[in-house]
UniProtKB/TrEMBL annotation:
Keywords: Glycosyltransferase, Transferase
Species whose genome carries this gene: Terrabacter aerolatus
UniProt keyword annotation of Glycosyltransferase present: yes
GO molecular function: glycosyltransferase activity
Domain named Glycosyl transferase family: residues: 189-321
Gene3D superfamilies: Glycogen Phosphorylase B
Species lineage: Bacteria, Bacillati, Actinomycetota, Actinomycetes, Micrococcales
The protein's name in its UniProt record: Glycosyl transferase family 1
Glycosyltransferase subfamily 4-like N-terminal domain span: 19-180
Length: 360
């Protein structure tokens, strides 16, 4: 089997990962190759050299002076991304050696052009509906020809339901490599990991940690500089520390030495990979109950509180979380959240799609 994987053009597929999409793509490519499956990866510049990715980039973008003078011209970065995916999809039209195209991008063109390829296209839905992708999927759903080629899978039941008005999606939860995310000794401090942006709401974690009377360590890329300056930087001190954007080894050491992970989304979390990574380290989770988190943060390994819970209520939940059995957290992650399970499920979907394609 030969699978072409389309990654994101916005962030490299490399550690430290920008988010769950990049982590999934990196682990998927490696897992498929470990199983003897040929993979061609298209990904952003700067991706892990070991993946052998073909770059999704158009630099420089050649536009005439007349085109650049058009007052309706969209930002050049948008045009480069559009042309990069257009170039890939046109190239794939001419190939007959690819059995499945697995689209892990957030761009609309791979969905809109799925019908033009010989191979079936499987798109993983990583986010809630977006204004660019939703219309492409809606058109796909109305076209009988495209529907033979375009297929969808979501990273959680919650995300599948969010897209159900335009697509029917299978569900494959994101996976954690439990060979790298190993059990840690625990500790006294709390930890928060993720992109530092308003929708991830680390400011809530700061308030909850203080209400619980515990130190908090924050790790992750600063995705919104203004938000960080306004809501995080001024709170840093002896009890709240920012340790930077760590690679996997650094995160494993940090999370494994923590009493509990705080997950504080101010949006419907499509899956919540950081919670699964925490459980793999044996570290219990205290999370605001939004999105797909409840599908694997279950009693015995984590505590969920309503999204509108006050800081004191959340602090009481922290006190219940930190005494949960770390061995049970680890065991649950190995069974329910492993990257091996994820890869096997995707391989099963690929086989089903190739059989459908052969029968068409």
């Amino acid at each position: 089997m030969h699978v072409a994987v389309l990654g994101s053009s916005r962030h490299p597929i490399a550690e430290p990962f920008a988010g769950g999409l990049e982590s999934l793509t990196w682990h998927l490519v490696r897992g498929l190759r470990e199983r003897g499956i040929e993979v061609t990866l298209f990904a952003a510049p700067g991706s892990d050299p070991a993946l052998g990715a073909l770059e999704l980039d158009i630099v420089p973008l050649h536009l005439s002076d007349s085109a650049r003078a058009d007052v309706s011209m969209v930002p050049e970065a948008w045009l480069r991304e559009h042309d990069a995916y257009l170039q890939v999809m046109v190239a794939l039209q001419r190939r007959d050696d690819v059995d499945v195209v697995h689209n892990n991008s957030l761009h609309h063109l791979p969905v809109a052009m799925a019908h033009s390829l010989r191979a079936p296209v499987l798109t993983t839905l990583h986010t809630p509906p977006t204004p660019w992708l939703e219309p492409a999927i809606a058109i796909d759903a109305r076209s009988r020809q495209v529907a033979r080629h375009g297929h969808f899978v979501a990273v959680s039941d919650h995300t599948a339901r969010a897209w159900s008005h335009v697509a029917t999606a299978s569900v494959v939860h994101n996976g954690v490599d439990d060979r790298r995310w190993v059990a840690g000794p625990g500790g006294d401090d709390l930890v928060w990991v993720g992109r530092i942006v308003p929708e991830k709401a680390p400011h809530r974690a700061i308030a909850i940690a203080r209400a619980a009377g515990r130190r908090l360590r924050i790790a992750g890329p600063v995705g919104d500089v203004d938000y960080f300056a306004r809501h995080v930087a001024g709170e840093l001190g002896d009890d709240i520390s920012y340790v930077g954007h760590l690679d996997t080894d650094g995160l494993v050491a940090l999370v494994g030495a923590s009493a509990a992970m705080l997950v504080t989304p101010d949006w419907d979390e499509p899956y919540g990979l950081v919670a699964a990574e925490s459980l793999a380290c044996g570290t219990p989770v205290m999370a605001l109950d939004r999105g797909g988190l409840r599908e694997f943060v279950v009693p015995g390994v984590g505590i969920l509180v309503p999204q509108d819970a006050g800081d004191d209520d959340a602090a009481r939940a922290v006190a219940r979380a930190v005494v949960l059995d770390r061995a049970a957290c680890r065991a649950h992650a190995v069974v329910a959240c492993s990257v091996d399970r994820m890869v096997e499920q995707y391989v099963g979907l690929y086989r089903s799609l190739t059989e459908l394609s052969d029968a068409a």
